[in-house]
Design goal:
Blueprint (H helix, E strand, L loop, with lengths): L4 H39 L6 H30 L8 E3 L5 H14 L6 E5 L4 E4 L17 H13 L4 E5 H6 L2 H12 L2 H4 L2 H20 L6 H40 L4 H31 L2 E3 L2 H15 L22 H16 L11 E3 L4 H23 L15 H9 L23 H4 L94 H24 L31 H21 L2 E5 L3 E6 L2 E2 L4 H10 L3 H10 L11
Helix pairs in contact: 1-2, 1-8, 1-9, 2-8, 3-6, 6-9, 6-10, 8-9, 10-11, 13-16, 13-17, 16-17, 17-18, 18-19
Length: about 675
């Protein structure tokens, strides 16, 4: 370990953690030590008498209870499997140039080289300790000779260095020099990690954390559950005692690694950090706007990392803040360090779909890959027609009559427009005579509360974005990976009081401005196409819109339940020696978005119906926009003004803006459309 100030502080904190471990061991062996003293005193004739006999028996029984309990607790801590991040392992044969770059970097930093390299579908990089026996290769044959034992010990020492985990978007977007500069502070963390005190403290903390997770499993017998509760309480107590020391130790390790890495490409590191934030924003936008609609259709894009490059290149053509980013593409990309970048991109894309959406571990009839060239036809067109078919099924359930102007009585856009814009539903029988008495309330109970008229007064200002896709991440050693695609959105109360207004939340954290901080998604026709200004998403106030939105929500829930029952997510197969262990039953680990609100569902389905009518009547084409996802091309140009017109129909019941747009484009709403 070097002489950096951070390294010395980290070692001091590690010793504090080990002292807590030593005190726990001392408490466990204290009754046995006292029992030995009492027995020795009795055998020598010094501690005799009835009182000393009672003390010997009491302490001896206590020691017989405490020692096995302590041994069992230590066994559970030692054998519990620490959590390991899901990654795609990269062997040296698959990326010899990448391994050579990392080793040269370790030599320049005068630190041990990482034992292996793995990729993760995240915009971050960190070191991960996988020296636990549960993460090693399985024992082959029952060889018990001394040579085999010594060979295993030698291999375990050789593999003691942590594994370097690299975010896969970095390899495709960054150049080789930028990747080296970004990885410098991460690789420098192997130096402090090799110190025995820091390594022992980390093993102790990870063991306690793994023990807490192991005993938290439900479905055990009452006796076992009681024992597990005691083990969990003791492990949490020890974790609480060393929490502050462990956190300060990790900060010291990160500070020491950053200090040591300053001598390597320091100027290039500053420039590369801009690319880190840009890659983060592009990856987040690609997952939420492009990949998520495909995953919901049972298709997973097989080239997500290549899509990041396409998305950020498209950004450089649209936004002046991104000028110059595409000029870097003439340099050698970091993905050239891989022998087969296509197959690795496919593996990380499948892992991303599994982590962020909960898809199966392997391809199948209902879970197949899709290329970017096939995305408009296989995903966009299919999604729109599926949503339009669901919309008409719900209208049939609500008893809405089909439009008579259609050529063959098929599903038409006019049916949707008339239902959402008519002042009152058309009666099936003769019109009853006028009655001065108020009409009875026929609204379903579930929708009665949504019919409360809104309070008059100034409109509330739009809520600030719940997350900042443009924040820049500083990779550091032993950083716990954060869910990149997770973007929690604020869900407002469906029946908010008119006043007082909600207090403003804390200001967003400062970050480096990126081109994604602006609004580039005016023409977004994908799922959740309401934009950041509509995060409140109150339910539609009109009873027809509310009934239709609730019907769509119920239909979506039934379809998802039926799909989950008929095609359950397959558990992960037996992992290879270097594939991490993780629980496949709690997928998705990092959901990208919360469930869509009824308002969002209704807007998406009405938009899909309009797009289907445009495709079938005026020859419009579905397309993929790298920044906004599914888009509609009319006469070769994107339809960028459709979403506000659909919202005007849904929220205000005013079809005039949408009908005007349909007339300008030449779409005939009375013509039947083709559904799935």
């Amino acid at each position: 370990m070097g002489v950096e100030v951070g390294a010395q502080a980290a070692r001091a904190r590690a010793l504090a953690v080990l002292r807590i471990r030593g005190r726990a061991v001392a408490v466990a062996v204290l009754p046995a030590a006292v029992a030995v003293v009492l027995l020795a005193g009795g055998s020598t004739g010094h501690l005799v008498g009835l009182g000393w006999d009672i003390a010997r028996w009491t302490v001896g029984v206590l020691a017989l209870l405490v020692l096995p309990a302590a041994a069992g607790f230590a066994l559970i801590v030692a054998r519990s499997r620490p959590a390991v991040s899901p990654t795609v392992p990269i062997t040296e044969a698959a990326a010899p140039d990448l391994y050579r770059l990392v080793r040269d970097l370790a030599d320049r930093l005068d630190v041990p080289a990482p034992s292996a390299i793995a990729l993760t579908p995240d915009c971050d990089s960190w070191l991960e300790d996988r020296t636990h026996p549960a993460h090693g290769p399985p024992r082959s044959s029952a060889r018990t000779d001394a040579a085999s034992f010594l060979g295993r010990r030698t291999r375990s020492r050789a593999a003691a260095a942590p594994v370097l985990v690299i975010g896969s978007p970095f390899l495709w977007w960054m150049r080789v020099g930028e990747l080296r500069a970004v990885l410098a502070p991460v690789v420098a963390g192997t130096g402090p990690s090799a110190h025995p005190d820091i390594a022992a403290a980390r093993r102790f903390v990870r063991g306690l954390d793994a023990a807490v997770a192991a005993v938290s499993t439900t479905g055990r017998r009452p006796v076992v559950r009681t024992v597990c509760a005691g083990v969990g309480w003791l492990a949490r107590l020890l974790l609480h005692g060393c929490r502050e020391h462990a956190a300060q130790m990790e900060r010291g390790v990160a500070a020491a690694a950053a200090e040591r890495a300053q001598a390597v490409d320091y100027g290039l590191r500053i420039v590369a950090q801009e690319q880190v934030g840009l890659a983060y924003a592009g990856w987040d936008r690609l997952l939420t706007r492009v990949a998520l609609p495909a995953w919901r259709m049972g298709r997973w894009p097989s080239r997500l990392d290549a899509g990041v490059v396409a998305a950020l290149t498209e950004l450089s053509r649209r936004d002046r803040l991104a000028e110059g980013f595409a000029s870097r593409l003439g340099e050698r990309p970091a993905c050239d360090l891989l022998e087969e970048p296509g197959s690795i991109d496919e593996a990380t894309s499948l892992l991303a779909a599994r982590l962020f959406h909960g898809g199966p571990a392997e391809s199948g009839p209902t879970w197949s890959p899709v290329d970017w060239q096939e995305y408009p036809d296989e995903v966009v067109d299919r999604k729109w027609r599926t949503d339009a078919a669901r919309l008409h099924r719900v209208l049939d359930t609500l008893g809405v009559r089909r439009a008579t102007r259609g050529a063959d009585g098929g599903p038409t856009l006019s049916r949707v427009l008339d239902h959402l814009s008519d002042p009152a539903p058309a009666p099936d029988g003769p019109t009853p005579p006028s009655d001065p008495a108020p009409a009875p309330d026929l609204t379903p109970p579930a929708l009665a509360s949504s019919l409360t008229p809104p309070a008059t007064g100034p409109a509330a200002s739009p809520a600030p974005p719940a997350s900042d896709p443009g924040r820049t991440l500083e990779p550091g050693p032993h950083r716990t990976p954060e869910p990149t695609g997770t973007r929690p959105a604020s869900e407002s109360d469906p029946h908010p009081p008119p006043e007082p207004p909600d207090p403003p939340g804390p200001p967003p954290a400062p970050h480096s401005p990126t081109p994604f901080d602006g609004d580039l998604g005016d023409g977004d026709l994908g799922e959740g196409a309401l934009g950041d200004d509509d995060l409140d998403n109150p339910p539609p106030q009109d009873p027809r819109c509310a009934a239709l939105a609730d019907g769509l929500s119920a239909e979506m829930a039934r379809e998802e339940e039926a799909s989950g029952a008929s095609h359950p997510a397959a558990p992960p197969a037996a992992p290879a020696p270097d594939i991490p262990f993780w629980d496949g039953g709690a997928l998705p680990l990092f959901p990208l978005q919360p469930p869509r609100t009824p308002r969002e569902l209704l807007a998406d389905h009405v938009t899909a119906m309009v797009c289907c009518a445009a495709i079938d009547t005026v020859g419009a084409t579905p397309a993929l926009d790298w920044l906004d996802g599914p888009s509609l091309l009319v006469n070769g140009e994107r339809a960028t003004d459709l979403t506000p017109r659909v919202l005007s129909l849904i929220e205000d019941g005013d079809p005039a803006p949408l009908r005007t747009w349909l007339a300008e484009v030449g779409i005939r709403p009375e013509k039947p459309v083709r559904l799935v």
